[in-house]
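Quick one: co-fold with iron/sulfur cluster.
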Amino acid sequence: MSNASTLPHFSQERIVQANAALDGAPPFTILQWAVDAFFPKLTMGTAFGPEGNCIIHMLAQINPRVRIFNLETGYQFKETLELREQIKDRYGIEVEYIYPETTVAEYEAEHGGPLYEHRPDQCCHDRKVLPLRRAAVGYDAWISAIRKDQTKDRGQAGVVQWDAKFGLVKINPLLNWTKKDVWTFIAKHDVPYNPLHDQNYPSIGCWPCTRPVSDGEDERSGRWAGQVKKECGLHVIEHNDGSGI
Ligand code: SF4
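Sure, here it is.
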């Protein structure tokens, strides 16, 4: 099966060229390019992490009409939901909730209890991946907030790459930023952030699958702690030669 881009107006060759031209560029420049190349068929998913909030801050200046969504699994922390309201007040950007097909109560009744305990991949698939697929229909490109230094897999990503899983061009404007770069930007521009970060939660997802970390632990070690799983399935990294990892 070919993983090459199927966008008629944005070939695999253009993706490779854009990635080469933008690798190392400032995030604002990468976002400006993405808006020029794809808006209005450009979207962004966010879990309101510090990286995503930096991007929202920049998009508010570049084009606040870029559609931004959050996968509201029904298992998010109340602090995360409150942050959406703060973002709305600060930037006038209303992040759209994308819901799974069933409520938490319906889902747990259907499966005889929560799946996150023993089948988290299935739970993430049903409550994140499938809703993202629906949210992506009609779009050509999506923005993500991953950083290269977060995981080994993310270290293989490109600033601009083809995302075969969702059939979109994927733009990773903060790929080359460090955690320090993110928090420096937040402090400098007073960007809203989740208060749980001040309570030893460096990476925040759904509450059942997130715990605080101890000093010296990897920043994503609090996600699906005790399990091999480290991604929810949204960020499958593709090399720009079309091979996935
Ligand atoms: S992070 Fe946990 S609760 Fe959230 S969708 Fe995945 S398995 Fe379910």
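If it helps, Confidence is low (pLDDT under 50) at residues 241-245.
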